[in-house]
User: What shape does this take?
Amino acid sequence: MLGRTLDDTISSEAFATYLDRLDAGKLFLLAADRATLAAYRDKIDDELHAGNLELAHVGQAIFLARVAVVEKLVASTLAAPMNHDDDETIELDAKKLEPATTEAQLAERWRQRLELEVMQRVATMEQQQRGLGGAHPSAGSASKPTSEIPATPEAREAKVRASLAKSYAAQFARQKTPGPLDAVSELVNAVCQTFDPHTDYLPPADKANFDIAMTGSLEGIGAALRVHDDLIEVSDLVPGGAAQRQGKLAAGDLILSIQQANSDDWIDVMDMHLSDVVALIRGPKGTVVRLHVRKPDGREEQIEITRDVVVIEASYARGAFVKRGAGPTFGYIYLPGFYADPSESRTASKDVGRLLASMTAKKVAGVVIDLRGNGGGLLQDSVALAGELVDKGPIVHPGRGGAHRHPRRRGSGSVRARPGGLLA
Assistant: This one.
């Protein structure tokens, strides 16, 4: 792959990747839409050289038009009771599906998927009623008390359909208002992926989130946020952060609107993108932000928080000594990512090196370095860490590196700074 030229061959490969990023599940674009976009298959290189990415804007316009169509058919499908007595099969692997050729075929594809989602959620309700537990991944967040589960199958299905309708309406509302750089970044990243699967273009908002993940700190209130239907929910608070010290904001709170200390205006955040809400809450240390929130019990409250530097200790390497019975003592190191702050006073390799030194001093029988959940990070620091473990030999093939992150898919959000959501 090294030394490849940006030409028609690259354009053709990038075009296939672009379509996959645009509509990975084959749930929006018709075959005719894809045929229209195919006119640009060999022109991506020319557009990049000219600085005029027409495909990006045409593709986004076609996709948004399809979102409007799908939004209506999903709402219509979920508005009526479903027939669960017929015998049918559904293919969930998008790679095995051909693009729908008609709107009727697309509507049928969505009907089957929605009916499956409804059946899964109803089954979860019935398991809870029988005391079996184990919520299905598609059933949402926390399990509901059995007293909130309707008594009849028809009522359970109706409740699930209403919940799904609300969730999808919020999803479509966000999809219909893309960010100013979303269209271009999708196309540029398709080209980047063609050259090197570990290289991505990061728009400013994603770059800021990536920097937070790499440094383990930010200026804000220290709250992890996630999408909850048409609003943004507080999923977690950073220990020692400004929000936790203030004491009024809590996990489960829904953010309704935001006000800056130097403004009289409240900004409604309903259906707003998560990254945009985060940008409103983050800010320089010492400044004030006000949040209008709805508590889980339905009460509404205005909370004023002074922003501060938030240190995310969970982003850093940490270790422990493990001993079972009379057996030998082992060292355990958990490394969530390959990070480094701008001054490089704290890096993954240095932190792991200090932990290894302390474990060596204790004469442990061995050390386990746990990389489960490690999303990658800075190549140079992963190489430095390898130097703590091996004496010599190649570490990485030259020219294939860079700061690694998982490719951003439409609707998946930005790089996360912690598992609980995006940090503000």
Notes: DSSP finds twelve helices and twelve strands in the chain. Residues 340 and 347 are 4 Å apart (CA to CA). Residues 134-142, 400-419 have pLDDT under 50 and may be disordered. The longest strand covers residues 231-237.
